[in-house]
Amino acid sequence: MFKKFVSANKKALQKFKRNSWGVFSLVFIVVLSLSALGAYILAPDNTVNANNGDVSISTQKPGFTVKTINIPLGNKNKTSVFDYFTGKEIKEQFIPILSYTFKGDTLYYNEFSVDPSTSQTKYLLTNVFPEADEKSIEENHIKTKKYLLGTDNQGRDYLSRLLVGARVSLAIGFVAVFISLIIGITLGALAGYFGGKTDAFILWLINVIWSIPTLLLVIAITLALGKGFWQVFIAVGLTMWVEVARVVRGQVLSVKQMQYVTAARALGFSDLRIIFKHIIPNIMAPVIVISAANFASAILVESGLSFLGLGAQVPVPSWGGMIKEHYNYIILGKPHLALIPGLAMCLVVVAFMMIGNALRDALDVKG
User: Fold this and answer.
1) What percentage of the chain reaches a pLDDT higher than 70?
2) Phi, then psi, of 111 in degrees rounded to 5
3) Membrane-spanning residues where (predicted)?
4) Do residues 108 and 121 make contact, with C-beta atoms less than 8 angstroms apart?
5) Looking at 56-70, 188-202, 279-293, 334-348, which range is the least confident one?
6) Is 119 exposed, middle or buried (CB count within 10 Å of its CB: 0-12, 13-18, 19+)?
7) Residue 112 to residue 101: CA distance in whole angstroms
8) How confident is the model at residue 1 (pLDDT cuts 50, 70, 90)?
């Protein structure tokens, strides 16, 4: 029996590998997840929440390049290993400039301006830098920054915000699916196995939750728990267990009459052991498929909440929040500010739906 179980898994894996779209989508999600995990390593701006910007260079187009004067802030805290995961403190203030010149112990510079004719000339004393000589200042504190995806409305690096924002979207999917699986599998299995009043009560609860629009229910739970990062995760997870519970209940109803369940009862095993060690492992195929779809749904729900101002709060970046901040630029000639996070979200949702379809075909015993 064990050999048949292994061969069935191998057969499902082979069928999944033959689905090129499913494999491509899985690779895309893995690469995106690794990029989000190492966002502060890959991001040009590796400060906490990629929040280091200057309004003078706001809403610049992709590929924008500017010279900057980087002034140390005196923060001498050492960089730890955790900073590569959580982001570093802002240790330098940068000033975008058009040109500069040294005169004695003074550094004169022209501030960056879209219209050079309106640029103002300002100065800095060279003693604000650790090195006093011109050559060292030029080498260590006057640099050229390139913004591959341009800057947002606060002058922050848009690529960095996009990478860090991917964490929120992927995390909301994982946490919401995890919560929905725990609640959905437990209630669905209890309803299908025990039947009677237990089944009637759980079905009533499912129908009540199902009758409330998902976004409205999430908003209500979010308002009850309060605005915040983890509150959104919990709120989304508490609204996505219903479909899992319905599917699990139906599967348990058909499986609990099987011979191996009858044999387990005859051996005197407890009901909970029969449910969680014998029945549930044999009905996980459709649950896995639903989880992939729920992952995509959770990302869309979180983006809707962020757009309404109820999701991840400023300055934490999220794709929904980035769309909210920049949707008005669509009609102001800079649509990329809203379209880039929207396209990223679309690709992730499509990838999870493709994975779900590939898993459905691979786990179909009739195929």
Assistant:
1) 95
2) -60, 150
3) 21-43, 168-194, 201-223, 229-248, 279-301, 337-359
4) yes
5) 279-293
6) middle
7) 14
8) very low
Q: Give, in degrees to the nearest 5, the angle at Cα 237 between 346 and 341.
A: 20
Q: Which of 239, 183, 182, 225 is nearest to 311 (CA)?
A: 225
| 2 pLDDT more than 60 | no
Tens digit of each residue's pLDDT (9 = 90 or more) over 278-307: 888 888 888 888 888 888 888 888 888 887
Q: Which fold has domain 2-34+159-362?
A: MetI-like fold (1.10.3720)
At residue 122, the 3 state secondary structure works out as: strand
Q: In terms of residues, how long is the chain?
A: 367
Helices 214-225, 284-307: crossing angle, 10 deg rounding: 70
Average pLDDT over residues 124-147: 86
* Nearest of 45, 243, 70 to residue 155 by alpha carbon: 45
HSE-up of residue 110 (Cα within 13 Å, Cβ side): 10
- Does residue 333 come out as left (phi exceeding 0), alpha (psi in the -120 to 50 range) or beta? left
List the structure tokens of 29.
Answer: 């999600």
Parallel, antiparallel or unpaired: strands 142-147 and 92-103: unpaired
Q: Which of 64, 42, 15, 44 lies closest to 285, judged by CA?
A: 15
Q: For the chain, give every domain's residue range.
A: 2-34+159-362, 55-151
- pLDDT tens for 223-245 read 788 777 777 788 888 888 898 99
At 336, the amino acid letter reads H
Residues 6+ apart with CB under 8 A from 13: 362
Rounded alpha-carbon distances, angstroms, from residue 362 to 19, 135, 279 = 9, 64, 21
Which tokens in the block code for residue 180?
A: 């929905």
